[in-house]
Amino acid sequence: MNRQLKNKLFTYATWIAVILSTTILFFLFGVILWNGLPAIDFNFLSQASSNFGASGGIIYQIAGSVLMVLFSALICLPVAIGTAIFKSEYVISKKLHAIINTLIYSLNGIPSVIFGIFGLILFVNILGMGISWIVGSIILAMMILPTVTLSTYHSINSIPTVYRESSLSLGLTKWQVIRKVLLPQGFSGAVTGLLIGVARAIGETAPIMFIATAFSGVAFPNSFSEPVSTLPTHILALAQQATNPDALQNAWGSSLVLVTLVVLFSISALCFRLKHQTISKR
Amino acid sequence: MLGSTNKIGKYYVYSSTLISAFVVFLIFIILLLNSWEAISTIGLDLISLSWNPAKGEFGIISMLYGTFVVTFIALVIAIPLGTFTAIFTSEILASKYRFVVKSVLELLAGIPSIIYGLIGIAFLSIWFQDLFDLQSGRTLFTAGILLSVMILPTIITLTDDAFHNIPEKYRETAKGLGLYNSEIIKEVLMPIARADVKSAILLAFGRALGETMAVMLVVGSIDKLPSPLLNWLSPGQTVTSKLGREIAETSFRSVHFSAMIFMGLVLFSIVLFLTVLAQNSSKKTERLYE
Q: Residue ranges of the ABC transmembrane type-1 domain (chain A) (predicted)?
């Protein structure tokens, strides 16, 4: 086989792979849109679900999902910022840095269902908090912690050393430097990370399905210790009665709403990142 | 006064780092403590074939087998497909479209796994049922195919980065020597990008092992090894689908519960090992070429 032929074959192989990947991609988006759009109307978005999800809308599912990720962001933020400051400003030894990195990446790699059983054992059973949405928020906060920490770390770490040195020489204490000089910058990184994290958290099913949600008869919670219904778990419940065409229709509708929420969070993360480029670029 | 806020700030920073670091250990300890009962009462019988809680048999082999078969199918499809697509986006496609491709891939990676599961139930399993004339389309093979679609964006986007980070001068030099495009990619770029590609694959491997919702919906959920062993068009069970289906119905602190947690612990350890491996693999090349 000569070189030219090999080159041609290679190019063909690449093209086949691209066409296949693109087909899969269009199929996925197409299916979600094609099946989801007919299910969605104003009633679907504004009513409570009834008849085990086969009729009615998904207003409480949307509310439950948003509530849960909102609180997970609130829980995650202070810890993530603290860890990022430590990693960027306090650690000198390379070894400690590597250990912290390994821990953060390990946390990021843990399968979502493991978080679920961890929450079930620790919060629901040992601490006796019961199946409640706040447990779900805590677990989701743990899941997005690495994303937010790394994003914050990168934006703090990219601030040139000159800024730290000149503010220190003006007589500021280390904490004042962090608070007045570094944090305003780092905050944009934290928000970007949070938006990416929330986009991931809102679609997670496995970690919350046995610790935070109930399927039917759930309205907006009045306290921290009540279960809610969320979009992903709603889709799961509907998907398991896939022989019922009405339920399936509503499952597609909920999927489209969920994907739209994910896309919204991802796009705002992107816009935020582009708007707040760090000063090091200048 | 100034000194005290300085101290408070320091305490805050230290304690939040401790919390972050503590989480991984806490998860490990909780899993270990709760699987201890199964390890001590069942012992080596955990590594056997039959899972039957009523008879007190808790063998996790068939679940582990399912997990590895499903992951194997996914990787066998996604690695070549993903690598070739990444070579296209990085080396052949004009770089002004790169932003679009990257954004679309990011979107694709962001589709929640439950929606993949829904697509698997509504389309894939029905197609396979008709295509192979099966009793049910929910099989190990279906789960593997679905999983390959799910990890495809991860592999494409990380491999694309690996190729894109190689300085232009390598390509120009190789071109100047009269090499064809395919030769440049195979002989020049691939060796440089190899470590990063390897870490991308390891990450995808880890993700595939831990994927729950989509697999759980299409794998069939039967705790048996297929017979014959390589008949992957039969229903099976993975560790994650077993946990997802059964854990909520198992009473806390029973041997049954403990055996399930042991399964989780095994999965946790494997995925952790892969993550650390992936991280080390990409770290070595940090300053290889400049």
A: 62-269
Matching CATH number, B45-283, of 3.30.830.10, 1.10.3720.10, 3.40.440.10, 3.90.1640.10: 1.10.3720.10
Contact B90, B160 (CB under 8 A): yes
Residue B177: C-alpha distances to residues A179, B168, B171, B173 (Å): 55, 15, 10, 6
CA–CA dist B26, B10 (Å, integer): 24
Print the domain residue range for A27: 3-37
Do A10 and A74 sit in the same domain of this protein?
A: no
Give the gap in angstroms from C-alpha B14 to the nearest C-alpha of chain A: 7
Looking at the structure of chain A, the number of domains it has is 2
CA distance A177 to chain B (A): 10
Which residues from B are below 8 Å from A89, CB to CB?
13
**Strand partners of residue A50:** A55
Task: Name the amino acid, one letter, at A218.
Answer: V
Strand, coil or helix: what is A260?
Answer: helix
Of B15, B87, B276, the CB nearest to A102: B276
ipTM: 0.89
pLDDT tens digits along B125-176: 999 999 988 888 889 999 999 999 999 999 999 999 899 888 888 999 999 9
Looking at the complex, report in whole angstroms how far the Cα of residue A222 sits from the nearest Cα belonging to chain B: 24
pLDDT single digits (tens) A76-125: 999 999 999 999 888 888 888 888 988 998 999 899 999 999 999 999 88
Reported as a single tens digit per residue, the pLDDT across B203-256 is: 899 989 999 999 999 988 888 888 788 888 888 899 999 998 888 888 888 888
A113 and B121 within 8 Å at the Cβ level: the answer is: no
Contact yes or no for B30 and A32 at CB 8 A: no
| pTM beyond 0.95, yes or no | no
Residue A77: CA count within 13 A, CB half-sphere: 17
